[in-house]
Amino acid sequence: MEKYRLYTNGMVDIESILNDWFSNEMHNHIESFDKNGCKVTIFIADKYFLRINSTLTLTTIIERSPNNITAVVITSGGAEGLFGYTYGSEHSAAKPILKLLKENGFH
Predict the structure, then answer these.
(1) What does 15-30 look like in DSSP terms, one character per residue?
(2) Strands, E, within the chain: which ranges?
(3) Which Pfam families does the annotation name (predicted)?
(4) Which residues make Cβ contacts (< 8 Å) with residue 5, sequence separation at least 6?
């Protein structure tokens, strides 16, 4: 499992951008709710990779508060075998979404 946390104080509509991106994934689920005055949106996508003989899951959680936006990107399921080698698959799966977030003001 790999986990990344990014922030921005900009008011970009990242939920719409991520909705478009995740809609292109084969299997996805998107859920939004309010929690303690913050809007939380969870994006989940999974895809089977022959290279690692495993289904890899990419989860992105967006928490929008009045002053900033937090994005948490988590990849999991990319490990193979007794020792759990990922062969870089989890990092590779996170790269496009991290790039998209950084292009929209996250750091």
Answers:
(1) HHHHHHHHHTSSEEEE
(2) 2-8, 27-35, 38-49, 54-64, 69-76
(3) DUF6054
(4) 70, 71, 72, 73
Q: pTM here?
A: 0.87
Q: List the strands of the sheet with 38-49, edge to edge.
A: 2-8, 69-76, 54-64, 38-49, 27-35
Q: Which of 90, 107, 92, 104 is nearest to 15 (CA)?
A: 104
Tokens of 80: 């193979």
Whether the CB-CB separation of 47 and 55 falls below 8 Å is answered with yes
Can you say how many angstroms the Cα of residue 4 is from the centroid of all Cα atoms in its chain? 9
